[in-house]
Amino acid sequence: MKDLHKIQMLILRELLFKPNSTFTKLNIQGLTSDHFSYHINTLIKDEYVEKKNGKYSLTPKGKEYANQMDTDEALIEKQPKIAVIIVGIKEENGIKKLLIQERTKEPYYGYRGFITGKVRFGEKVLETARRELLEETGLICDELHLKNIVHNLVVLEESGDLVEDKMFYIVTAINPKGKLINTRNGKNYWITEKEFFELDKKYYDEDNVYRYSLEKKDMDLDEQVFFIKEF
User: Fold this and answer.
1) Burial call 8-22: b when 16+ CB within 10 Å, e when fewer
2) Per-residue model confidence as pLDDT tens digits over 187-197
3) pLDDT tens-digit readout, 43-61
4) The domain 6-76 is classified under which CATH number: 3.40.1280.10, 1.10.940.10, 1.10.10.10, 1.20.120.80?
């Protein structure tokens, strides 16, 4: 998400509550015309604001962005990361195998666990799982199952600092096909269930993720697309 100048954030906040405002009414900071024009024109160029008949309003893009604002502080509120965890499972010579990635970037460099990836704006959960599986491993899978949702607050023990706030959709990928590859993000390989439980340097909650992935019933998730006349 793009970081905007403080003045631009204040303009967006004004337009949240006062659509169709004039140049003068928006300039609540009392800036010179040239200075204020620069900021309002930048917002127009970046398609956050539009000008019609001498008045300014938020575009749909601007409304979506400004709607995430803490309006008291005129700052975008920090929100949890939304991602999928993909538990790849296959059977080989009668032995269950799990797909594991060793992470090769920070944070968690060198840690081992299941494939993860962020949900993109406008993307459905199983679409994310299918895309991330292909991008991270080169594999494709026709059988994907949503099993659970977990919300992780990750705190450093020594300092007590909250360093991550993450929501994960746990998805199983049954018998993915293709040639397994490594990427810049991680090294991928198949291991047995016994080897999984014996892994060293494993992510903090990986055993619970695997337990959730074994649930017999899939989780219901209502994902719909709505067409509206106004926003």
Assistant:
1) bbbbbbbbeeeeebe
2) 999 999 999 99
3) 999 999 999 999 999 999 9
4) 1.10.10.10
